[in-house]
Design goal:
The protein is mostly helical. It contains four helices and two strands.
């Protein structure tokens, strides 16, 4: 289910944020998988940048997006990577 609040960003960012909103609790996707899901298979770095611009880090769960090598990547929400790890652990995901 896509996030319903009025999002302000580029069309690309909004596509990414809506795709992130569809990742179920307790699951993760890589930046690359997310890029493929929005039909931009070579845009994994741009997807990561859009995650970093996420205006609602908890409501739009960008903590569920990780690197292709299995590492966490970044997190723009309060507390940074420590918060990302904590949020994932609370959902039963241990990375």
């Amino acid at each position: 289910m896509a996030y319903r609040k009025k999002l302000i960003g580029t069309d690309f960012q909004i596509k990414v944020w809506n795709a992130i909103s569809k990742i179920p609790k307790g699951k993760v996707k890589t930046y690359k998988e997310l890029a493929r899901s929005i039909r931009k298979p070579k845009a994994s770095r741009a997807v990561a940048n859009a995650c970093g611009k996420n205006p609602f880090p908890i409501k739009i769960p960008c903590h569920r997006v990780i690197r292709s090598d299995g590492r966490l990547g970044g997190y723009s929400g309060k507390g940074g990577i420590k918060t990302k790890r904590k949020l994932l652990r609370n959902e039963g995901v241990f990375i």
